[in-house]
Amino acid sequence: MIEVKNVTKIYGKKDNAFKALDDVSFTIPIGASVAILGKSGSGKSTLMHIMSGLDKPESGEINIGGRNILALSQKQIDKFRSRSMSFIFQSFFVQAKESCYDNVSLPLEIADVSSSKRRKMIVDALTAVELLDKKKSRARDLSGGQKQRLAVARAIVNSPKILFADEPTGNLDSVTGAIIEDLLFDYNKKNKITLIVVTHDPDLANRCDMQILIKDGKIDRILGAKK
Amino acid sequence: MRTRDIVIRAGRSLKQAKARTILTSLAIAVGAFTITLSLAAGDGGRAYTDKIVSSNADAKEIIVTKEQPSAQKGPQKYSENNASIATPFGSTSVLSQDDINKIKKVNGVVDVIPNYNPQVKYITGENQDKYVATITMFSPSVTLEFAAGSINGDLLDNEIILTEEYVKALGFKNSQDSIGKSVDIVADKLSAPISNPESKTFTYTIKAVSSKSGLAFRAQSSLQVSENSAKSLYNYVNAGTRNYNKFIVAAVRVNDAGSAETVKNELTNMGYFAQTAADILGVVNTFINVLQGILLGFGALAILTSIFGIINTQYISVLERTQQIGLMKALGMRRRDVGRLFKLEAAWIGFLGGAIGSGLAFIAGIVANPYISKALDIGDINLLIFNPVSIVMVIFGLVIVSVVSGILPARKAAKLNPIEALRTE
Asked: What is the rounded average pLDDT for all residues in chain B?
């Protein structure tokens, strides 16, 4: 269970202070697919950054598996992120000059996985996104859809518990976007991992078990929450 | 993150920016080149002087002169026993027979051989032109190279060693041809009155011909005879003059090389100026060390400038890869590891620069050695000696320097905020 409790995030100081998140609280069950939906500037990206421990709020708790990750040291939180979380971004952030293999290898290297174990994991991840034949190609030679598939492979190679996807289809046409969506939801269902999608696309949000609508830093509505 | 993985990643990112990497490391290479060459020149120079001194001076021999008057302040008081000889550089105190007898009594001294160096008039052969010649004493401890003939042990009193230059001049076909033939040396008796000059011809058999050697000073132009022959020439020339039996220099032979230093100290206490082979080597090496120091300074200056090159390159690299750094940090890479990644990149640049510079210096040295030896006329001696240990030390040192210059950019990378970094598109 992921519990977000009274999270408030303020940017700027004094007169310029701006509440990006205002006393946000909700709970996500393990293995669910969740959409954080909102317009740009609504605070949905900030929420994702705080939930992943990349950013620290002024107040509040993020309890994952009963542990408040905001209370962890930087070293512990880095370790937690490298073992249990992964990310997919709107603009892919694949390393253009590196091969697909090396791109997928990065999270494993960061998580201290030995090189002998890495090989099989990388091959499996590339197979899952149907990019094994591009193993040795450089990432810049791939199409947009292929790049995002590579990013998916990089995100799943480490068998994370939580997968954050920040506008994963924002830079793709509807056909390739649909392929990425299918990949993510299939992975979510098969492996019982928590998928958190940040988006402003209602169609994508509709495919999720749960939708959290954010408006001006506050929760507007939560759809599909089981109580 | 494992060090091995970081090293590989660091190497890979440098490969992706080949031109920049190579240009930056070339700046270091200039310094590495200079330093490697100056180390090689220093090693070579010292080895060369070591060879020269050890083949011209004997470890069992101490060169003794009277303490130089120039070392004292003000004009010197005249004294009957303090004889001196006028030289082009002023008057020099000389060693008298008394001095030599005194030195002979010192513990450990086997023999004292004054430097006779008789001044003869000319040398000639049968029906040949007359040539000016310098005569020196043969010493078995001095290494000679021979163009023809050879010396086994000591030179006999009626034998002479010619130099190659005199072979042709005296009408021999070649060096081999001259062996066993005789030459005449004519000397003037200096004490004879001008109105009635007296001179005498000394005949010697050519035992060997010394070739030009990179090592020997004496072999260059002087002819060598045995100690006894030199003495009899000296006696003939100088007997009856004021300067007879007064010597500027004497060689003191000691029973073994180990006691040379003790005897030297004893002689110094007695008021003589004594130098062992090691002393002479030390003086020459001081010059080499100073020259080498200047060269090393230039190398260090080049390294200093290249440090700024590395810092600049690494800063640009951090800026260019903001997004990559952000991603790595988002994936849980620790600040320390991000810093290490950039420091290792700097280390690679330093290694590359060091390897290129030392490698080029090595090749340049190998190519240049024969030309240098030829230009300086020192035979087959190499003036640039490359020591693998010092090359490794140079490269290692540059790696360290590069890592240190990479610290600031690495810190910038480590401090980067991943959220900000991933916002840039």
From this structure: 85
Residue B60 to residue B141: CA distance in whole angstroms: 9
Contact A55 B419 (CB under 8 A): yes
* C-alpha Rg value of chain A to the nearest Å: 18
Assigned token pair, B384: 């640039």
pLDDT tens sequence across B173-211: 888 888 888 899 999 888 888 888 888 999 999 988 887
Q: How many CB atoms lie within 10 A of CB B169?
A: 16
d(CA B59, CA B53): 9
Residue with tokens 């050519």: B206
Task: Specify the pTM.
Answer: 0.73
Q: Which residues contact B335 (CB under 8 A, 6 or more apart)?
A: A74, B329, B414, B415
Joined together, the tokens standing for residue B142 give: 């001095």
Nearby residues of B138 by Cβ (< 8 Å), 6 or more positions away: B151, B154, B155, B161, B224, B225, B226, B227
pLDDT digits (tens, 9 = 90+) for A199-223: 989 999 999 999 999 999 999 999 8
Q: Is A182 on the interface with B (CB under 8 A)?
A: no
Window B:403-422, CB contacts with A under 8 Å: 418-419, 422
